[in-house]
Recover the amino acids of this structure.
């Protein structure tokens, strides 16, 4: 799936590759490879049913998951999954439709409507295999009754710029949708629904992965309205009106239509962090996993990580060896200045770099395991000695780029972007900080 991890360093003669640069890329590659669907799907597949097998789903890993199902399924099947543009893979029996992410589009809305049609009129002998991964929420863009796609797009834009956490954003999305928040499983009843998820959310709650289209929802319309108010979101009037109606409420666990479904989280962020830690240890480093669910403003998380890195370098730790600090999770960005090209990983790393100052022998990488940082063309960015020198030579003002949510432009100027293309998986953010002796 991931053929290579390409670091955008421009002219190789002009920019010398350092050992730590490749080391950090190797850790990122290990994290991505550990979450590839081909390694996990087969052992979670159920026995074929007496009736039909229908495969549906959405997300950044959905095409690769569909390929893995086809490879290991012994009986006839059909279906449709939605994947972002650039992440399509060939399948023989399952139709792969591309749609826009993170801003919903007509293609996603039309494909979502087709999925809902496919699961109608199934019986108890039929099986639905639902393949869900991060990014699926924007792809399953089927608006609730009385809402338009333009309304959904406006809601999505408000959510992405609000600074709300992923679970809060998905709570609002669920209650404005015809397919999310368990509605897909309810529509498929009485067929059995088996959901295979790849987690991109802190805590690995399947009801929050892609807004849980086949999972009972514990949140309420009141929760959604409270989130809108808390973050001062300006939603379309139609969306606000819909959130106050009974039609906006999602299926709950006690309802009969949610009684014939099972969920398996087949890949979790922690697995990827452990894979990266093995690479670090093979290079003679002590790997310290700080957690797979770090949340908060990207720039604030960057500052905190810088403080930890400086303390580790200054005071050491019991292992008395060089350290790699590894973490995951999903930070958020509150957009302060429109027009900047950011991405939460690039913004987190830029805030980290500014906070460590001229600290010797601390280098870092921050990337999204799906290969796309926000909506830009990079997975994230690197900070090495070579990149620091390029920054100094160009006299780049870090505060200026941070103040304008323009971290992409900063790392592009000093040749620090990491570009991979679509990885066909998504277990959220990956960060590694290499802390060597100051000497």
């Amino acid at each position: 799936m991931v053929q290579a991890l390409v670091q955008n360093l421009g002219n190789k003669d002009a920019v010398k590759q350092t050992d730590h640069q490749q080391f950090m890329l190797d850790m990122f590659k290990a994290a991505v490879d550990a979450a590839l669907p081909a390694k996990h799907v087969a052992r979670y597949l159920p026995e074929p049913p007496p009736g039909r097998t229908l495969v549906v789903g959405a997300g950044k890993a959905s095409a690769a998951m569909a390929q893995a199902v086809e490879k290991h399924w012994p009986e006839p099947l059909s279906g449709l999954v939605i994947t972002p543009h650039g992440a399509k893979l060939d399948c023989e029996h399952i139709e792969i439709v591309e749609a826009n992410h993170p801003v919903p589009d007509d293609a996603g809305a039309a494909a979502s409507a087709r999925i809902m049609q496919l699961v109608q009129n199934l019986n108890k002998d039929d099986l639905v295999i639902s393949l869900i991964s991060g990014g699926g929420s924007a792809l399953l863009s089927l608006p609730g009754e009385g809402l338009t796609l333009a309304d959904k797009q406006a809601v999505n834009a408000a959510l992405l710029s609000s600074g709300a956490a992923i679970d809060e954003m998905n709570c609002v999305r669920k209650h404005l949708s015809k397919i999310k928040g368990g509605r897909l499983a309810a529509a498929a009843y009485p067929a059995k629904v088996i959901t295979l998820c790849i987690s991109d959310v802190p805590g690995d709650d399947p009801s929050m992965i892609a807004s849980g289209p086949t999972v009972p929802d514990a949140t309420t319309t009141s929760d959604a309205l409270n989130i809108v108010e808390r973050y001062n979101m300006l939603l379309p009037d139609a969306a606000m009106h819909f959130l106050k109606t009974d039609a906006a409420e999602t299926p709950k666990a006690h309802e009969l239509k949610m009684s014939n479904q099972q969920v398996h989280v087949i890949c979790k962020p922690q697995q990827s962090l452990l894979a990266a830690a093995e690479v670090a240890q093979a290079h003679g480093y002590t790997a310290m996993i700080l957690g797979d669910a770090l949340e908060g403003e990207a720039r604030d998380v960057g500052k905190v990580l810088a403080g930890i890195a400086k303390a580790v370098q200054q005071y050491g730790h019991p292992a008395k060896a060089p350290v790699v600090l590894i973490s995951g999770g999903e930070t958020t960005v509150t957009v302060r200045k429109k027009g900047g090209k950011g991405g939460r990983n690039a913004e987190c790393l830029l805030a980290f770099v500014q906070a460590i100052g001229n600290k010797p022998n601390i280098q870092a990488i921050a990337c999204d395991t799906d290969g796309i940082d926000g909506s830009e063309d990079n997975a994230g960015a690197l900070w090495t000695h070579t990149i620091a020198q390029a920054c100094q030579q160009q006299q780049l003002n870090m505060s200026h780029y941070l103040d304008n949510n323009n971290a992409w432009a900063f790392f592009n100027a000093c040749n620090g972007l990491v570009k991979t293309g679509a990885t066909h998986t998504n277990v959220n953010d990956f960060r590694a900080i290499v802390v060597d002796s100051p000497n």
About this structure: The radius of gyration is 22 Å. Residues 21 and 163 are 31 Å apart (CA to CA). The chain is about 35% helix and 20% strand. The longest strand covers residues 286-297.
